Amino acid sequence: MTPNVIEEVLLLRAEIAAAAARLIAQDGADYNTAKRKAARQILGDTQPPLNLLPDNAQIEAEVRIYQSLFHADSQPARLFRLRTLAVDIMEGLAAFHPFLTGAVLNGTAGPHDDIHLQLFADSAKEVEIFLLNRNLQIDISETPHFKGPRYDPVETVSFMWHKEGVHAALYELDDLRGAVKARGDGKPVRADIAAVRALLVNSTHDNTNDKPDHE
Is the dihedral of CA 69, 73, 74, 77 positive or negative? Predict the structure, then answer.
């Protein structure tokens, strides 16, 4: 590709990423849906080549920019609430090796985001019975396996906790071995309860440092 074509591709990719970020922040769309809708908004019905679509890391960066511009006064408190509830839930589900994933982990969670967990158990039924015995009304769906499309989707239970949605993908215990890998950019894909507690402590510390000194 010529330099002009490369520059045009990069600009279009950035435009699609920014449009996808708006859909995620404003409507709570998932990344794949937002990416497809954003591409249609900008390119029409033309099927875009794969190299034109931004990756999730680029979209996530645009979500952070959007949140800092439009939700700077409310997003940190929203994130703190969701992470606090996540710790509460994970403590109750400690027997199933809970990990936090998604926007609540990466720090981009806004008003439309739910709490996403991954649990590891001998069977999905074991988790479902555990939740039902605690009088939680659950819905069951499927989530793509974190190992990729070659693996079958996993059962996912959804329920409400303190008026917030929770979605827990149910993996087999053997999948735990593959659950500790970081993303390509080094950021964690999932975090155990100790790591989420550390995020809360750090955010509290940051907020304290942000307060002006009294004269």
Answer: positive
pLDDT of residue 206: 61
Distance separating alpha carbons of residues 178 and 64, to the nearest angstrom:
28
Residue 188 tokens, joined: 């964690």
Q: Is 143 helix (H, G, I), strand (E, B) or coil?
A: strand
**Do residues 109 and 63 touch, judged by C-beta distance below 8 A?**
no
All residue ranges of the chain with pLDDT < 50 are 208, 211-215
At residue 54, φ and ψ (nearest 5 deg) are: -70, 155
**Residue 208 has what pLDDT?**
47
Q: Which helix (H) or strand (E) holds 171?
A: strand 164-172
Residue 174 in tokens: 């053997």
Q: Note the pLDDT tens digit of each residue in 173-204.
A: 999 887 666 656 667 789 999 999 999 998 77
Beta strands 115-121; 164-172: pairing state: parallel
Tokens found for residue 113? 């985001």
pTM as predicted = 0.85
H or E element, residue 207: helix 193-210
Furthest-apart CA atoms within the chain: distance in Å? 63
Both tokens of 66, joined, read 């959007």
